[in-house]
Amino acid sequence: TIFEEYPTADIYTLYADYTGAQWARKYKKRIQTTFLQNFYRFIPKKQWLVPAMPFAIESLNLSNYDCVLSIGSSFAKGVITRPETKHVSYVFTPTRFLWLQREVYMGKNWIPAFLPRGKAGAGMTRSVRNDIGIMKWLRKWDSVAAVRPDEIVTLSQFSQKNIEAVYKRKSEILYPPFDVSYFRSLMKKDRKPSVTLPSSYFLFVGRLEPYKRVDLLVETWAKGHKENLVIVGTGTEKKKLINIIKVIKNITFITIPLTDAELMYVYKHARALIMPQAEDFGYTALEAL
Question: Which of 85, 125, 167, 234 could form a disulfide with 146 if both were Cys (CB 3.0 to 4.6 A apart)?
């Protein structure tokens, strides 16, 4: 990982889940967090912390560094550095819920940001009006944050085009590393997971987050697909998806952690991998290949 390439570098993040995130435990001594670390455990939905995240990222004191590398798809690029500090930002994509995938996160009935408040509709609730105000402010902040890095690097031509379209900034492509030999070695182990798999199935692997569009996949399957579907992953959409899947007999949900060797077994025996989402890079496609 990038942390191993720079073993003496300090690591900053908004907050760290040392219980659930294995990578965070490994680098705990190097990690420094913001004031959000005191709140995230008690907040049932992490989305509620979003309005505070710009303030949190700007609160980081990076004045002692000659070079800063920010990595992420939302707030990391907004760190404030000295004018003489070199700031390179590895931006995966323009912040998803603010720009290109607003409808996925806000729902099909979201009110466009360019619509004047007075024309937004008499039936619109106060909470929705307030949400529009917050979203408008966050988009403005995000646009300013995208100007701060001296250079932007991204992971695909797809993201490069989106960064230029949204932020009006050029970026260089640095593809994520992929260890082909490692995954080929896992194929030989044939380690079957401790879950029951159908004899024939299609497969989805990924985080259960709105932009992954697992909801679209499940809805499509609910219309009468006779083939089996296996879903591997966990995330904020887990509970909602499980409730839907309860009434669909030919969908198998695997939310328990799998080793890489077990995941390779699941890939190997699938008929095909399905990716219903617009993906910035698509790591699971490489793993399946």
Answer: 167
